[in-house]
Structure formats: C-alpha cells, structure tokens
Amino acid sequence: xxxxxxxxxxxxxxxxxxxxxxxxxxxxxxxxxxxxxxxxxxxxxxxxxxxxxxxxxxxxxxxxxxxxxxxxxxxxxxxxxxxxxxxxxxxxxxxxxxxxxxxxxxxxxxxxxxxxxxxxxxxxxxxxxxxxxxxxxxxxxxxxxxxxxxxxxxxxxxxxxxxxxxxxxxxxxxxxxxxxxxxxxxxxxxxxxxxxxxxxxxxxxxxxxxxxxxxxxxxxxxxxxxxxxxxxxxxxxxxxxxxxxxxxxxxxxxxxxxxxxxxxxxxxxxxxxxxxxxxxxxxxxxxxxxxxxxxxxxxxxxxxxxxxxxxxxxxxxxxxxxxxxxxxxxxxxxxxxxxxxxxxxxxxxxxxxxxxxxxxxxxxxxxxxxxxxxxxxxxxxxxxxxxxxxxxxxxxxxxxxxxxxxxxxxxxxxxxxxxxxxxxxxxxxxxxxxxxxxxxxxxxxxxxxxxxxxxxxxxxxxxxxxxxxxxxxxxxxxxxxxxxxxxxxxxxx
Amino acid sequence: xxxxxxxxxxxxxxxxxxxxxxxxxxxxxxxxxxxxxxxxxxxxxxxxxxxxxxxxxxxxxxxxxxxxxxxxxxxxxxxxxxxxxxxxxxxxxxxxxxxxxxxxxxxxxxxxxxxxxxxxxxxxxxxxxxxxxxxxxxxxxxxxxxxxxxxxxxxxxxxxxxxxxxxxxxxxxxxxxxxxxxxxxxxxxxxxxxxxxxxx
Lengths: 493, 200
Description:
InterPro entries (chain B): FTHF_cligase-like_sf, LUD_dom, NagB/RpiA_transferase-like
GO molecular function (chain A): 4 iron, 4 sulfur cluster binding; metal ion binding
CATH topology of chain B: Rossmann fold
CATH topology of the largest domain in chain A: Rossmann fold
Oligomer: heterodimer
Organism (chain B): Nocardioides szechwanensis
Shape of chain B: globular
Structural class of chain B: alpha/beta
CATH architecture of chain B: 3-Layer(aba) Sandwich
Number of domains of chain A: 2
Helix content of chain A: 40-55%
Radius of gyration of chain A: 26 Å
Strand content of chain B: 15-25%
Largest interface: A-B, 100 and 76 residues
Strand order of the largest sheet of chain A: 1-10-7-4-2-3
Shape of chain A: elongated
Strand order of the largest sheet of chain B: 1-12-7-4-2-3
Number of strands of chain B: 12
Order of helices and strands of chain B: HHEHEEHEEEEEHEEEE
Protein name (chain B): L-lactate dehydrogenase complex protein LldG
Number of helices of chain A: 23
Pfam families (chain B): LUD_dom (PF02589)
Strand content of chain A: 5-15%
CATH class of chain B: Alpha Beta
Helix content of chain B: 10-25%
Largest sheet of chain B: 6 strands, parallel
CATH class of the largest domain in chain A: Alpha Beta
C-alpha cells in the first residue's frame, strides 16, 4: 500500500521538518540549480520568447473562456475517432471508471504513464483496493513507488533522492515487484536507468491495459498528446490492447494549430531542452496500430470551482512544466512534501486551494508559503501571475475567518494597528513606546542585522513567537520621524 | 439523476456566465528564417547525442547497411524505399510481429514524415516506409532516414504539414531521462541508439 498525502500537517509545521533534513536540502539545491541553468540557456536561445509566452497564455485562455463548447467538440471528435468518452465529476468517479475498464478485461495489473492527474485522484490506491496492481513506468515514479515514498516535484517526483539513495531502493525493492536489480548495481545514473529498463520491459511486453494522462487534448481533432522522455509513455500508449486516458477538462486546446506555441514552450520550461525526446499524439483508435480499445475520462474534480474564480481561473492555464518550482526560493529549501499535495511549489500553493476550496487548515496554509518574490511568474511559460493569485487566496482565507468567535492574533494586531494609525495622538503615543523598545533592544538585542542594526531574537507570546521564530525583528528606531522633525526643525537645528 | 456529463457542463456554464468567448484562433510568432535549415537540423539532432550522417541518394543503401552492425537482426516496415539485406518485413504475408517478437530484434530502419531544424526533431506519421508505432519503439537501435526536402525550419511549419488524424511520434534524440539529480542520461525504454541519415 502506498503512502498518501492525507493527514499532512499545515505548511509551516511540515516545512520545519523538511528544513531540518540537510540531505534533502543538499539534493534539492543541486537539482534545482542544474535545471535552472539549463532552462535559462534554452530560453535565451529563442528570440521571441516573450511573444511566445503571450501566445501560449492566449491559447489556454481561449480554451478556458469557451470551455463548454470545446469539451463538447472534443467529445464528438474522440467518439468519431473510435474512442469511448467518459465524464467524471470527482476522483471517486474517475477511479471507478478506470477500474471497471480494467476488470472488464480481467487483468490484475495495468502499466501507467507518468500522470499528475492520476496521482491527484489516488488511482493507484483505488485500483489496489480492487486487486489491480498499477505499475508506474516513469523512472522517477518508479523510484517513488518502490521506495513507498511520496512525489515531491511535478516533473521529477524523486527529486529529493540522490543517486546513492536510488541505488539502495532499487537493490532492496525491485525483486519484490518483478525482475530484481543486478547485484553489481552502481550509482551511475546510466546504470540505474539501465536497471529500470530491464525491470520494466517484461511488464511492457505483457501488459494488456495501460493508463495515461494527457498533456493536451485537441478539441477540433480529438487528439491526445503525451510529452515524455524515456519511451515508457510510447510503450504504454502503443503495446497494450486497451488504453484509458484520464484527462482534466482544463487540458483542452481548441485547434491543432494552436498546439504549436505550447509544444515550443513546454520542453524548454520543463526539462530545459529544445524538445523532449518523445511526444506521442493519437486520435482515438488507429486500426492495426496501437490499442484497439481507447477510453478517455474527462475529469472535473474541482476544476470548475477554479474556473468560477475570476482571479484564480488563470491557474488552469498551467501546463505542469514545473519551472515555477525550480526557481522558487521557498520550494528549493523545503522541497515538495511540505506542500502536502501532488501539486507542490508555487503552482501547488494556488492550485490546491482553487481546486479544493479554502477552509481546511492545511490548504489554507499554502497561499502563505511564499515570499511573493515573483520569480514564478517570470518563469511561467503561460504567464500565470502566481503572486496575484496568492494574494487573492490569502484574502479568501482571511475572509473565511471574519466571523470567528475567537479572532486570530493577526486579526487582533491588524485591528490594533488600524486603531493606532487612524489618529495622530494615538500614533505619537505608540511611537513613544516603540522608541523605548528600540532603545532597550539597541542595547540588549541578541542579533545584529547587516548594516549594524540590532534585532530581537525570539519574542514570547501568542502571535509574536510565531512571527519571530523564523524572522529577525529589527529594533525600532529610538526616535520617530515626527519627533525628530519637531526636535530639529526638519534638520535645521 | 443528472449525468456526470450534464453536471460538469452545467458547472462550466455557471462558472463562465459572465465571460465572453474568444472565437479567433491564436497565431503564435515565428522565428526569423535560418539560412541552412538542413545543416541546422543535422547539428541539432546531433546535440541530443544521436548519430547523424548525411549522404547522397545513391549512397543511401550503403549508409543504411553501414549503420547496422554485422549480424544484427533487423526489422523494417513494408514500403521502405531502400532494400535492407536480411531484414524481416513487419506484416509480410499478413503476419504482424508481436511485442515479444519485436523485442528479439536489434534494430529497425524507417523513413520519416518531417524533420524540424530548430529543435532537431523527427516526426513519424507511421505511413508507408515508417510502419506501425511498435516497430520503431521496441528494437534498441532506430536507423531513421530523413530526406532533406522533408526538413522544415520550426515547429509551426511541421504542425501545418502533419495530419493529426494519424498517430504521430515526435522523436528528439535517443530515449533519455533526467530523473536522477536532473542529470540527463541517454537510454531508458525507447531505442537507446538513434542513427539519423539525412539524404540529399
């Protein structure tokens, strides 16, 4: 039984645990550093990258603004191509459809292409309950699955593992899932990839049913697109007799021609390549080539909730490249597990509350898991203004607590500040107190900030202790500006 | 009871009640034309650590033979325009090779539908001379013949040439992964060796 994110603590608690793991921080700093440099090099090579981003954003916006029409078109084109189209309101419905198809063919295993959406709906766990083993075939997913671990990155779910750890997992676990790893396995990435090839080949060759997601679904032509690197996708999409693809309704692209900017944006943003090794497209069933029974499950699972949010809607443009994770200073330090979802990082911090709605403490903590530095927006190939959505969602989280009988410390502090700032005499009185605090801290403050200013260490008390546990509180100036002006007549005395 | 389909479409309608649809397809920008498109294609394919060579039409059969190590078991699609000595033709006498049988071959030789210079990509549409998808996937070495007049500058040029009703496979170098420390290594499940012969 594999682990799930259910019951994860809110971001601050999870992040504290992650930050204490020095191996994790080392692995992440190394991997994100590598990918940032690669992405920067291939993006710089494109003369009109900014125009291309605008075009990519426009295509996805156009798809979303008339989503109903495009979905009906997609369904018609898929059906005309020989595919069976299913609709699923939520995770349970989608999992049940996949299980029904698998059981109709009497199989006890399926092979899987790496897919975010099937993780989102917990498909592997649902199939396991039906006695069907779902084999992950992407290398990183295999590492996560064999290690009974959780994914921590959209593109590279095992980014938190280094080569030595992966070797250990392969040696220990491969035998239990099929062909064991060779005893002389080294930690050379090429050798590890070779072991995965041997381990999975027998599964590909015998598989009857495959499950995939899709990166794009072309409404006009009923074409599904899977973008990948290893060839595990091609194996799953080609060799089995039956293919079930679970596709979020936001994956729609209106026309075949509009796939162009997205195919140019995704690989450069994602793996930092001009093009990923393999992209497969198919439109229903091709007689004599590939699966002869093709199912497509169109999934909502909160997407229409996000669609209804005027500010948040743009998050549905996401093409799951993970560029925002790789540039995020918070993600780089905490890693993906702290976000408590298959969608970590900046995009996860907005996508989870948009899909699930606010109100749950874990979900509500996510919009705060950001310094609002804006690096994610700059890296995003479809120009999702993540900081804008984060601030919007913070306001929703705060609004959700307006009627609390016991107000939060932050709300009390804000009320007190509003009271003090709205009257000159009250402000002067506060400034006098803060000046006194400044003189005390100036003498006894435990830390010194760059530039020589003293700062307080951890201050006890509700609210204050949470704030100062991760931040230095600079000593307030001993004299306010207004007091200084009065004393010196604006610097003339 | 409302069907999932009707309910999802109704939710979409409610969510977008105040949103105007945009009926004009988006036209993406194109890059400035490059002088030597075929040369760029060869260079970019080689960047993925694929083997790339150029030859004249007259030297093609020889180049293909040289790309296949002596004694290798080779499968080819029906309709391949070049003869490969000793190769098994997929679908000959109406017999289609199983995945397991394909796993017994060392190499496959196919043609292609289009080459994309900017990204070093080959696209197969699995027509005559290319064969069904499985044959260019399971063998470990893929020898792919691309004619220089099939090479286009960039992705949008390829998109207009390709027919999405056919299955398409876009290939950019040999199978690879960056899943271990984001360090790219070639060779996972797809062909570990990609040998591209650019003709003309």
